Protein backbone atom coordinates (compact mmCIF):
# COMPACT_ATOMS: atom_id res chain seq x y z
CA UNK A 1 0.00 0.00 0.00
CA UNK A 2 1.07 3.59 -0.39
CA UNK A 3 0.84 6.31 2.21
CA UNK A 4 -1.67 8.90 1.19
CA UNK A 5 -1.96 11.23 4.15
CA UNK A 6 0.49 13.53 5.86
CA UNK A 7 -0.63 12.05 9.18
CA UNK A 8 -1.03 15.46 10.82
CA UNK A 9 -4.42 14.52 12.30
CA UNK A 10 -2.94 12.11 14.87
CA UNK A 11 -2.73 12.98 18.60
CA UNK A 12 0.27 15.09 19.65
CA UNK A 13 -0.34 15.80 23.35
CA UNK A 14 0.19 19.48 22.50
CA UNK A 15 3.83 18.91 21.53
CA UNK A 16 5.10 20.81 18.47
CA UNK A 17 5.75 18.16 15.83
CA UNK A 18 9.22 19.26 14.85
CA UNK A 19 12.86 18.40 15.41
CA UNK A 20 14.38 21.40 17.14
CA UNK A 21 17.76 21.45 18.87
CA UNK A 22 18.54 24.43 21.08
CA UNK A 23 21.61 22.93 22.83
CA UNK A 24 24.13 20.19 22.19
CA UNK A 25 22.77 16.72 22.96
CA UNK A 26 22.69 16.13 25.88
CA UNK A 27 22.14 19.74 26.96
CA UNK A 28 23.40 21.28 30.22
CA UNK A 29 20.31 20.43 32.27
CA UNK A 30 20.35 16.84 31.08
CA UNK A 31 24.05 16.64 31.87
CA UNK A 32 23.43 17.90 35.40
CA UNK A 33 20.70 15.28 35.87
CA UNK A 34 22.97 12.61 34.47
CA UNK A 35 25.56 13.51 37.13
CA UNK A 36 22.87 13.06 39.79
CA UNK A 37 21.81 9.81 38.14
CA UNK A 38 25.35 8.49 38.37
CA UNK A 39 25.50 9.14 42.10
CA UNK A 40 21.93 8.01 42.88
CA UNK A 41 21.06 5.16 40.49
CA UNK A 42 22.76 1.78 40.33
CA UNK A 43 25.42 1.67 37.67
CA UNK A 44 23.80 -1.55 36.49
CA UNK A 45 20.94 0.47 35.03
CA UNK A 46 22.26 1.75 31.72
CA UNK A 47 20.96 4.66 29.64
CA UNK A 48 21.05 4.75 25.84
CA UNK A 49 20.75 8.51 25.43
CA UNK A 50 20.94 10.68 28.56
CA UNK A 51 18.43 13.37 27.61
CA UNK A 52 15.93 13.81 30.43
CA UNK A 53 12.39 13.95 29.11
CA UNK A 54 9.75 16.39 30.37
CA UNK A 55 6.99 15.92 27.80
CA UNK A 56 6.19 13.75 24.80
CA UNK A 57 3.53 13.22 22.18
CA UNK A 58 2.96 12.40 18.52
CA UNK A 59 6.43 11.56 17.25
CA UNK A 60 8.43 13.88 19.54
CA UNK A 61 10.23 13.73 22.90
CA UNK A 62 10.93 17.10 24.62
CA UNK A 63 13.86 17.25 27.03
CA UNK A 64 14.67 19.47 30.04
CA UNK A 65 16.69 21.78 27.79
CA UNK A 66 13.68 22.17 25.44
CA UNK A 67 15.22 20.13 22.65
CA UNK A 68 12.60 18.41 20.49
CA UNK A 69 13.76 14.98 19.38
CA UNK A 70 12.15 12.59 16.91
CA UNK A 71 11.20 9.38 18.70
CA UNK A 72 12.04 6.31 16.61
CA UNK A 73 11.89 3.93 19.58
CA UNK A 74 8.57 4.41 21.43
CA UNK A 75 10.36 3.52 24.66
CA UNK A 76 11.01 0.09 23.08
CA UNK A 77 7.69 -0.51 21.33
CA UNK A 78 5.57 0.67 24.26
CA UNK A 79 3.97 3.98 23.27
CA UNK A 80 2.51 2.54 20.09
CA UNK A 81 -0.60 4.74 20.41
CA UNK A 82 1.61 7.78 21.02
CA UNK A 83 2.87 9.14 24.30
CA UNK A 84 0.13 10.37 26.66
CA UNK A 85 -2.50 9.34 24.14
CA UNK A 86 -5.74 11.19 25.06
CA UNK A 87 -7.72 7.96 25.49
CA UNK A 88 -5.04 6.59 27.83
CA UNK A 89 -4.80 9.84 29.80
CA UNK A 90 -8.59 10.13 30.22
CA UNK A 91 -8.90 6.53 31.42
CA UNK A 92 -6.01 6.86 33.86
CA UNK A 93 -7.24 10.18 35.27
CA UNK A 94 -10.73 8.89 35.88
CA UNK A 95 -9.51 5.67 37.47
CA UNK A 96 -6.88 7.25 39.68
CA UNK A 97 -9.51 9.51 41.24
CA UNK A 98 -11.88 6.61 41.91
CA UNK A 99 -9.46 4.11 43.43
CA UNK A 100 -5.84 3.19 42.82
CA UNK A 101 -5.58 -0.39 44.09
CA UNK A 102 -7.45 -3.14 45.83
CA UNK A 103 -5.50 -6.22 44.65
CA UNK A 104 -7.65 -8.13 42.20
CA UNK A 105 -7.16 -11.31 44.21
CA UNK A 106 -8.68 -9.67 47.31
CA UNK A 107 -11.56 -7.52 46.04
CA UNK A 108 -11.82 -7.44 42.24
CA UNK A 109 -12.96 -4.71 39.82
CA UNK A 110 -14.42 -4.64 36.32
CA UNK A 111 -11.42 -3.11 34.49
CA UNK A 112 -9.37 -6.27 34.90
CA UNK A 113 -12.18 -8.40 33.49
CA UNK A 114 -12.69 -5.99 30.59
CA UNK A 115 -9.01 -6.12 29.61
CA UNK A 116 -9.16 -9.94 29.67
CA UNK A 117 -12.32 -9.85 27.53
CA UNK A 118 -10.56 -7.58 25.02
CA UNK A 119 -7.49 -9.84 24.91
CA UNK A 120 -9.63 -12.95 24.44
CA UNK A 121 -11.47 -11.23 21.59
CA UNK A 122 -8.43 -9.73 19.80
CA UNK A 123 -5.85 -12.53 19.99
CA UNK A 124 -5.76 -15.12 17.17
CA UNK A 125 -8.31 -17.94 17.13
CA UNK A 126 -12.01 -18.03 17.93
CA UNK A 127 -11.79 -20.83 20.51
CA UNK A 128 -12.72 -20.28 24.14
CA UNK A 129 -9.98 -18.26 25.87
CA UNK A 130 -8.95 -16.96 29.28
CA UNK A 131 -6.38 -14.35 30.31
CA UNK A 132 -4.40 -13.44 33.40
CA UNK A 133 -2.71 -10.09 34.00
CA UNK A 134 0.76 -9.30 35.33
CA UNK A 135 3.15 -6.35 35.60
CA UNK A 136 5.95 -6.95 33.13
CA UNK A 137 6.73 -8.97 30.08
CA UNK A 138 9.16 -11.21 31.94
CA UNK A 139 6.48 -11.98 34.50
CA UNK A 140 4.04 -12.91 31.73
CA UNK A 141 6.57 -15.30 30.16
CA UNK A 142 7.32 -16.90 33.55
CA UNK A 143 3.62 -17.44 34.09
CA UNK A 144 3.20 -18.93 30.62
CA UNK A 145 5.84 -21.50 31.62
CA UNK A 146 4.07 -22.19 34.93
CA UNK A 147 0.76 -22.69 33.14
CA UNK A 148 2.23 -24.92 30.41
CA UNK A 149 3.96 -27.10 33.00
CA UNK A 150 0.83 -27.40 35.13
CA UNK A 151 -1.25 -28.34 32.09
CA UNK A 152 1.14 -30.82 30.46
CA UNK A 153 2.75 -32.15 33.67
CA UNK A 154 6.03 -31.99 31.75
CA UNK A 155 9.08 -29.88 32.59
CA UNK A 156 11.23 -29.10 29.54
CA UNK A 157 10.94 -25.71 27.86
CA UNK A 158 12.24 -25.11 24.34
CA UNK A 159 13.37 -21.70 23.12
CA UNK A 160 15.30 -20.65 20.04
CA UNK A 161 18.57 -18.99 19.12
CA UNK A 162 18.56 -15.18 19.40
CA UNK A 163 15.43 -15.32 21.55
CA UNK A 164 14.75 -12.72 24.21
CA UNK A 165 12.22 -13.24 26.99
CA UNK A 166 13.29 -11.06 29.91
CA UNK A 167 15.67 -10.54 32.79
CA UNK A 168 14.26 -12.50 35.74
CA UNK A 169 15.97 -15.75 36.64
CA UNK A 170 13.76 -18.05 34.58
CA UNK A 171 13.55 -15.64 31.65
CA UNK A 172 17.32 -15.11 31.66
CA UNK A 173 17.57 -18.86 31.09
CA UNK A 174 15.14 -18.49 28.19
CA UNK A 175 17.07 -15.54 26.74
CA UNK A 176 19.93 -16.30 24.35
CA UNK A 177 22.34 -13.41 24.65
CA UNK A 178 24.91 -13.35 27.45
CA UNK A 179 26.08 -9.73 27.51
CA UNK A 180 24.41 -7.73 29.01
CA UNK A 181 21.41 -9.85 30.00
CA UNK A 182 22.93 -12.94 31.65
CA UNK A 183 26.64 -12.33 32.17
CA UNK A 184 27.63 -12.93 35.83
CA UNK A 185 24.02 -13.56 36.93
CA UNK A 186 23.87 -17.38 36.90
CA UNK A 187 23.20 -20.12 37.78
CA UNK A 188 20.14 -20.27 35.57
CA UNK A 189 16.97 -22.34 35.74
CA UNK A 190 17.27 -25.94 34.50
CA UNK A 191 15.23 -27.74 31.81
CA UNK A 192 15.57 -24.98 29.24
CA UNK A 193 16.73 -26.08 25.76
CA UNK A 194 17.70 -23.89 22.82
CA UNK A 195 17.20 -24.98 19.20
CA UNK A 196 17.91 -23.21 15.89
CA UNK A 197 15.75 -20.37 14.69
CA UNK A 198 15.28 -19.23 11.11
CA UNK A 199 17.45 -16.21 10.28
CA UNK A 200 17.21 -15.93 6.47
CA UNK A 201 20.06 -13.41 6.16
CA UNK A 202 22.48 -15.83 7.89
CA UNK A 203 21.10 -19.29 7.11
CA UNK A 204 23.06 -19.74 3.84
CA UNK A 205 20.01 -20.35 1.72
CA UNK A 206 18.17 -22.70 4.09
CA UNK A 207 14.46 -21.94 4.05
CA UNK A 208 12.05 -21.59 6.97
CA UNK A 209 10.72 -25.16 6.83
CA UNK A 210 14.25 -26.59 6.57
CA UNK A 211 15.32 -24.69 9.67
CA UNK A 212 12.17 -25.88 11.45
CA UNK A 213 13.08 -29.47 10.52
CA UNK A 214 16.54 -29.05 12.06
CA UNK A 215 14.96 -27.58 15.20
CA UNK A 216 12.26 -30.23 15.59
CA UNK A 217 14.68 -33.09 14.92
CA UNK A 218 16.83 -31.67 17.71
CA UNK A 219 13.79 -31.62 20.00
CA UNK A 220 12.91 -35.21 19.14
CA UNK A 221 16.41 -36.65 19.40
CA UNK A 222 18.02 -34.64 22.19
CA UNK A 223 15.18 -33.56 24.47
CA UNK A 224 12.34 -35.96 23.64
CA UNK A 225 9.14 -34.30 22.45
CA UNK A 226 7.15 -36.09 25.17
CA UNK A 227 9.18 -34.24 27.83
CA UNK A 228 8.47 -30.77 26.46
CA UNK A 229 5.88 -28.59 28.19
CA UNK A 230 6.25 -25.52 25.98
CA UNK A 231 7.93 -24.11 22.91
CA UNK A 232 8.28 -20.34 23.25
CA UNK A 233 9.05 -18.25 20.15
CA UNK A 234 8.78 -14.58 19.18
CA UNK A 235 7.09 -14.39 15.74
CA UNK A 236 9.53 -11.58 14.93
CA UNK A 237 12.51 -11.55 17.27
CA UNK A 238 13.02 -8.21 18.99
CA UNK A 239 16.25 -7.99 20.99
CA UNK A 240 17.73 -10.79 18.85
CA UNK A 241 17.83 -8.39 15.89
CA UNK A 242 14.35 -7.95 14.43
CA UNK A 243 14.76 -11.33 12.81
CA UNK A 244 11.83 -12.27 10.62
CA UNK A 245 11.90 -16.06 10.23
CA UNK A 246 11.70 -17.54 6.75
CA UNK A 247 8.14 -18.27 5.61
CA UNK A 248 6.91 -21.50 7.09
CA UNK A 249 9.25 -21.67 10.09
CA UNK A 250 6.89 -20.27 12.69
CA UNK A 251 3.90 -22.29 11.50
CA UNK A 252 5.98 -25.50 11.26
CA UNK A 253 7.11 -25.05 14.87
CA UNK A 254 3.50 -24.47 15.94
CA UNK A 255 2.34 -27.56 14.05
CA UNK A 256 5.08 -29.67 15.63
CA UNK A 257 4.01 -28.49 19.09
CA UNK A 258 0.37 -29.35 18.41
CA UNK A 259 1.25 -32.79 17.05
CA UNK A 260 3.24 -33.56 20.19
CA UNK A 261 0.99 -32.21 22.93
CA UNK A 262 3.35 -29.29 23.54
CA UNK A 263 1.94 -25.88 24.48
CA UNK A 264 2.95 -23.43 21.74
CA UNK A 265 3.63 -19.99 23.25
CA UNK A 266 3.98 -16.94 21.01
CA UNK A 267 5.92 -14.24 22.84
CA UNK A 268 4.31 -11.15 21.27
CA UNK A 269 5.51 -8.75 23.92
CA UNK A 270 7.36 -6.64 21.34
CA UNK A 271 5.51 -7.60 18.14
CA UNK A 272 1.94 -7.38 19.43
CA UNK A 273 -0.74 -4.69 19.48
CA UNK A 274 -0.69 -3.47 15.88
CA UNK A 275 3.08 -2.97 15.81
CA UNK A 276 3.55 -5.08 12.67
CA UNK A 277 0.34 -4.12 10.87
CA UNK A 278 -1.57 -7.03 12.42
CA UNK A 279 -3.01 -7.12 15.91
CA UNK A 280 -0.51 -9.89 16.56
CA UNK A 281 2.40 -10.92 14.35
CA UNK A 282 1.39 -14.61 14.62
CA UNK A 283 -1.52 -13.81 12.31
CA UNK A 284 0.85 -13.29 9.36
CA UNK A 285 1.22 -17.08 8.95
CA UNK A 286 -2.23 -17.81 10.31
CA UNK A 287 -0.76 -19.36 13.44
CA UNK A 288 -3.10 -19.72 16.41
CA UNK A 289 -0.83 -20.03 19.46
CA UNK A 290 -2.02 -21.99 22.49
CA UNK A 291 -0.77 -19.17 24.72
CA UNK A 292 0.29 -15.66 23.84
CA UNK A 293 2.27 -13.31 26.06
CA UNK A 294 1.75 -9.56 25.71
CA UNK A 295 3.05 -6.42 27.44
CA UNK A 296 4.85 -3.34 25.99
CA UNK A 297 2.24 -1.84 23.59
CA UNK A 298 -0.75 -3.07 25.60
CA UNK A 299 -1.37 -0.05 27.83
CA UNK A 300 0.08 3.09 26.23
CA UNK A 301 3.01 3.20 28.64
CA UNK A 302 1.49 1.93 31.89
CA UNK A 303 3.03 -1.30 33.22
CA UNK A 304 0.78 -4.21 32.30
CA UNK A 305 1.32 -7.67 30.83
CA UNK A 306 -0.83 -10.68 30.09
CA UNK A 307 -1.00 -14.34 29.24
CA UNK A 308 -3.95 -15.24 27.02
CA UNK A 309 -4.80 -18.67 25.74
CA UNK A 310 -6.95 -21.74 25.43
CA UNK A 311 -9.46 -21.99 28.27
CA UNK A 312 -8.58 -25.61 29.09
CA UNK A 313 -4.89 -24.73 29.44
CA UNK A 314 -5.42 -21.48 31.36
CA UNK A 315 -7.96 -23.11 33.69
CA UNK A 316 -5.80 -26.15 34.41
CA UNK A 317 -3.93 -24.26 37.15
CA UNK A 318 -5.19 -24.62 40.74
CA UNK A 319 -7.05 -21.62 42.17
CA UNK A 320 -4.61 -19.17 43.73
CA UNK A 321 -1.71 -20.50 41.64
CA UNK A 322 -1.47 -17.37 39.50
CA UNK A 323 -1.47 -13.73 40.53
CA UNK A 324 0.54 -11.09 42.34
CA UNK A 325 -0.10 -7.98 44.41
CA UNK A 326 -0.16 -5.51 41.53
CA UNK A 327 -0.98 -7.70 38.53
CA UNK A 328 -3.72 -6.01 36.50
CA UNK A 329 -3.57 -2.83 38.56
CA UNK A 330 -6.77 -0.80 37.96
CA UNK A 331 -4.94 2.27 36.62
CA UNK A 332 -2.94 0.13 34.18
CA UNK A 333 -6.16 -1.62 33.10
CA UNK A 334 -7.86 1.73 32.45
CA UNK A 335 -4.86 2.72 30.33
CA UNK A 336 -5.05 -0.54 28.39
CA UNK A 337 -8.75 -0.11 27.69
CA UNK A 338 -8.03 3.41 26.39
CA UNK A 339 -5.11 2.24 24.24
CA UNK A 340 -7.06 -0.69 22.79
CA UNK A 341 -10.09 1.50 22.04
CA UNK A 342 -7.84 3.99 20.24
CA UNK A 343 -6.24 1.21 18.18
CA UNK A 344 -9.65 -0.13 17.16
CA UNK A 345 -11.21 3.27 16.41
CA UNK A 346 -8.22 4.53 14.41
CA UNK A 347 -7.31 1.41 12.42
CA UNK A 348 -3.89 1.26 14.01
CA UNK A 349 -2.87 -1.60 11.72
CA UNK A 350 -3.31 0.66 8.70
CA UNK A 351 -1.19 3.32 10.44
CA UNK A 352 1.57 0.74 10.95
CA UNK A 353 1.41 -0.37 7.31
CA UNK A 354 1.57 3.25 6.21
CA UNK A 355 4.85 3.62 8.15
CA UNK A 356 6.21 0.53 6.36
CA UNK A 357 5.15 1.97 3.00
CA UNK A 358 6.93 5.23 3.78
CA UNK A 359 10.10 3.75 5.23
CA UNK A 360 10.94 0.68 3.18
CA UNK A 361 11.47 2.46 -0.18
CA UNK A 362 13.74 5.00 1.52
CA UNK A 363 15.69 2.23 3.26
CA UNK A 364 16.01 0.35 -0.03
CA UNK A 365 17.36 3.46 -1.71
CA UNK A 366 19.90 3.80 1.10
CA UNK A 367 20.94 0.15 0.67
CA UNK A 368 21.69 0.86 -3.01
CA UNK A 369 23.97 3.69 -1.97
CA UNK A 370 25.56 2.24 1.17
CA UNK A 371 26.84 -1.35 0.81
CA UNK A 372 27.13 -1.76 4.58
CA UNK A 373 23.35 -2.29 4.66
CA UNK A 374 23.23 -6.06 4.27
CA UNK A 375 19.54 -6.59 4.95
CA UNK A 376 16.29 -4.67 5.37
CA UNK A 377 13.55 -6.48 7.23
CA UNK A 378 10.50 -6.29 9.45
CA UNK A 379 6.84 -5.53 9.06
CA UNK A 380 4.68 -2.50 9.75
CA UNK A 381 6.31 -0.16 12.24
CA UNK A 382 8.81 -2.83 13.36
CA UNK A 383 11.60 -2.42 10.82
CA UNK A 384 15.37 -2.78 10.83
CA UNK A 385 18.53 -2.71 8.78
CA UNK A 386 21.43 -5.06 9.48
CA UNK A 387 24.90 -3.60 9.03
CA UNK A 388 27.83 -5.66 7.75
CA UNK A 389 31.29 -5.17 6.33
CA UNK A 390 30.43 -4.64 2.65
CA UNK A 391 30.18 -7.83 0.64
CA UNK A 392 30.35 -10.12 3.70
CA UNK A 393 28.14 -11.32 6.52
CA UNK A 394 30.56 -9.94 9.13
CA UNK A 395 28.55 -7.82 11.57
CA UNK A 396 29.54 -4.16 11.79
CA UNK A 397 28.57 -3.18 15.32
CA UNK A 398 30.97 -0.23 15.29
CA UNK A 399 29.13 1.32 12.38
CA UNK A 400 25.78 0.75 14.09
CA UNK A 401 27.09 2.50 17.20
CA UNK A 402 28.52 5.36 15.16
CA UNK A 403 25.28 5.89 13.22
CA UNK A 404 23.33 5.74 16.45
CA UNK A 405 25.56 8.39 17.97
CA UNK A 406 25.15 10.62 14.92
CA UNK A 407 21.36 10.30 14.98
CA UNK A 408 21.24 11.08 18.70
CA UNK A 409 23.45 14.14 18.30
CA UNK A 410 21.13 15.32 15.54
CA UNK A 411 17.95 14.90 17.50
CA UNK A 412 16.68 11.49 16.41
CA UNK A 413 16.24 8.87 19.12
CA UNK A 414 17.25 5.61 17.46
CA UNK A 415 17.95 2.18 18.92
CA UNK A 416 20.28 -0.62 17.97
CA UNK A 417 19.61 -4.28 18.67
CA UNK A 418 20.73 -7.78 17.80
CA UNK A 419 22.94 -10.57 19.07
CA UNK A 420 25.86 -8.92 17.24
CA UNK A 421 24.80 -5.33 18.09
CA UNK A 422 24.81 -4.48 14.38
CA UNK A 423 21.09 -3.97 13.76
CA UNK A 424 19.53 -0.56 13.58
CA UNK A 425 15.86 -0.86 14.53
CA UNK A 426 12.90 1.42 14.02
CA UNK A 427 9.88 1.40 16.30
CA UNK A 428 8.18 4.76 15.76
CA UNK A 429 4.92 5.50 17.54
CA UNK A 430 2.00 4.97 15.15
CA UNK A 431 1.19 8.66 15.72
CA UNK A 432 4.39 9.73 13.92
CA UNK A 433 3.58 12.45 11.32
CA UNK A 434 4.83 11.78 7.82
CA UNK A 435 7.15 14.82 7.69
CA UNK A 436 8.96 13.76 10.87
CA UNK A 437 9.39 10.21 9.66
CA UNK A 438 10.89 11.52 6.42
CA UNK A 439 13.16 13.81 8.39
CA UNK A 440 14.37 11.00 10.64
CA UNK A 441 15.30 9.01 7.52
CA UNK A 442 17.12 11.99 6.07
CA UNK A 443 19.17 12.27 9.27
CA UNK A 444 19.96 8.55 9.00
CA UNK A 445 21.06 9.08 5.39
CA UNK A 446 23.33 11.90 6.52
CA UNK A 447 24.71 9.61 9.23
CA UNK A 448 25.66 7.07 6.54
CA UNK A 449 27.21 9.80 4.40
CA UNK A 450 29.24 11.03 7.38
CA UNK A 451 30.60 7.49 7.88
CA UNK A 452 30.96 6.40 4.26
C1 LIG B 1 10.71 -6.75 26.30
C2 LIG B 1 10.44 -8.18 26.09
C3 LIG B 1 10.25 -9.05 27.16
C4 LIG B 1 10.39 -8.63 28.60
O1 LIG B 1 9.45 -7.64 28.96
P1 LIG B 1 9.72 -6.74 30.25
O2 LIG B 1 8.46 -5.94 30.40
O3 LIG B 1 10.92 -5.92 29.98
O4 LIG B 1 9.92 -7.68 31.38
C5 LIG B 1 9.95 -10.37 26.89
N1 LIG B 1 9.83 -10.81 25.62
C6 LIG B 1 10.00 -10.00 24.57
C7 LIG B 1 9.83 -10.53 23.18
C8 LIG B 1 10.33 -8.66 24.76
O5 LIG B 1 10.54 -7.85 23.71
> Which sheet architecture does the biggest sheet show?
7 strands, mixed
- Number of separate domains: 2
DSSP strand content = 15-25%
Q: Ends: how far apart?
A: 32 Å
The kinds of small molecule bound in this structure are: pyridoxal-5'-phosphate
Radius of gyration: 21 Å
Shape: globular
Question: Mean pLDDT, nearest integer?
Answer: 97
- CATH-wise, what's the superfamily of the largest domain? Type I PLP-dependent aspartate aminotransferase-like (Major domain)
Question: Which percent range fits the helix content?
Answer: 25-40%
Please tell me the CATH architecture of the largest domain by its name.
Answer: 3-Layer(aba) Sandwich
Topology:
Blueprint: H1 28-40, E1 53-57, E2 60-63, E3 68-71, H2 74-77, H3 86-98, H4 110-122, E4 129-134, H5 137-152, E5 156-160, H6 169-174, E6 192-195, H7 208-223, E7 228-233, H8 249-259, E8 263-267, E9 291-294, E10 305-310, H9 311-314, H10 330-345, H11 348-369, E11 373-379, E12 382-387, H12 397-409, E13 412-413, E14 415-417, E15 423-426, H13 434-450
Parallel strand pairs: 3-13, 5-6, 5-7, 7-8, 8-9
Antiparallel strand pairs: 1-2, 2-3, 4-10, 9-10, 11-12, 12-15, 14-15
Helix pairs in contact: 3-10, 4-10, 7-8, 11-13, 12-13
Bound molecules: pyridoxal-5'-phosphate (PLP).
Amino acid sequence: MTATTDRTDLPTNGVAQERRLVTDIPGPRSQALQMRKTSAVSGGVGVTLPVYVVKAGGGVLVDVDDNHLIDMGSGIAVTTVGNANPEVVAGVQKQVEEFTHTCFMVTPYAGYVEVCEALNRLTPGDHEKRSALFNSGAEAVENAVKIARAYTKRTAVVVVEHGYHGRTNLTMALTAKSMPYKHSFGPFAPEVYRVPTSYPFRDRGLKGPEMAKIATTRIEKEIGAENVAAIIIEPIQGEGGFIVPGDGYFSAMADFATANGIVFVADEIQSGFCRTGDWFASEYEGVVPDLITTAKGIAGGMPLAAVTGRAEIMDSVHAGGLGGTYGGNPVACAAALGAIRWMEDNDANALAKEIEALMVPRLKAMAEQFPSIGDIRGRGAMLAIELVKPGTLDPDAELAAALNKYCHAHGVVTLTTGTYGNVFRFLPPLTMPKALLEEALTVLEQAFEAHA
